[in-house]
Amino acid sequence: MGEITMTATGASEASESLFADHPKRAAIYAELHARPTEPITTSARIRRVAFMPADEGPSLEEVARRFALFAGQSALPFDDARTRQITVERSGRKATFELHNEFATLTWQSVLTDREIWPDDIGLECFAGLQRVSATRIDLTETSTIMEAALVGFSPISLCYSELYDGMAQVATDFNRDLDGFTRYELAAGRCNGVRRGVLVRRLLEIETYSNFVLLGLPVARALGSTIRQFEGAVSQVMGRVGHAHSTGENREALESIHALSAEVGRSIEETSFRFAASQAYAAVLGTRLRQLAERPIGEFTTIERYLTNRTGPAVATCLATEKRLQAVAMKLERSAELLNAHISLSLEMQNQTILDTISRTSESQYRLQETVEGLSIIAISYYTLAILGYMIEGFSHIWHVDKAIAMLCAAPVVLFLVWRGIKSLRKRAA
Predict the structure, then answer these.
(1) Where are the transmembrane segments (predicted)?
(2) Is residue 208 within 8 Å of residue 163, measured between CB atoms?
């Protein structure tokens, strides 16, 4: 029986040796278990702050290295899954560092009565030099409903008050920052077990964080609106110049203007494309998290999902519209450049054809002139040849008794023919 087991084991090892793991298999497996949600079994106060790198500040990689050293861990590679969530416990508080693609968060959990806003022993100094984007505070109680006293301080205009998970929990917030700069949530989860409480807290923290990051694209889109209007006006002016251009020089000036404008539009697209794409991605995640709450409004109050959807939806739509306008300007410029290039090419072709026609006419005139000159040359050479021949005939006329006039008459055609043949022969050799 032992031999059979060993044989099976050996066969298994032999089979496994036939293939290797994908280089990313370990990373994929680690990602499935990254950022685990820890149960919350008692009432607690949870705070989270989300940070982004500043232009002149440290990178997220540097912040992750700082916190790893603060937590007593060795500095791990930036893409190691263990750097994406690090938890430490100090002075009765549990602090968790989380690393995301373009931001990092620090979440700390303490007792409900904890009044210290910025504890000095949870690693906040590791984030020095970064910019704060959002700050969230959740007061979790073990009651089944939110106490009236806890609702004091919320603005009735923006108060969201709802039940979660078919009445198993209640949540309230007004999305206003308190005097400490935190957005406060009240969460009553007495009917939930520790695991579900942990999940609820994580969902609310993610909702607050992602809603802020969705809206980061809106100021960019608004600021770009006037620039796009300038681009559109400049495109119209350039196209007007194209329509009234009467020379190749004017067309080339218009083409240079199009190229300069295209470069500016390209820079704007490059500078904003990531922000707009990120807003859309965060909006998709936010929508999923909001639906997972399974909210039901309490009384006449609204839900978190409805409130945030009414704010983030138009913001994302504005980003999309701005992006499309930029792309439309870029396409207009591209088509204008193509049209102008074609116009310039056609103009040059017509100019070249005119030059060729002129050259052709000049060549034809030169040829005719050459023929005329040749004819005149034949006559002139023949004339002088006959004149010389006349002197010779006159000298021998007394000896040969030949009439000079008759001799000249007979010699003239012969001389003309011989001169013509001679010039033709010279012309043929020259060619």
Answers:
(1) 375-393, 405-423
(2) no
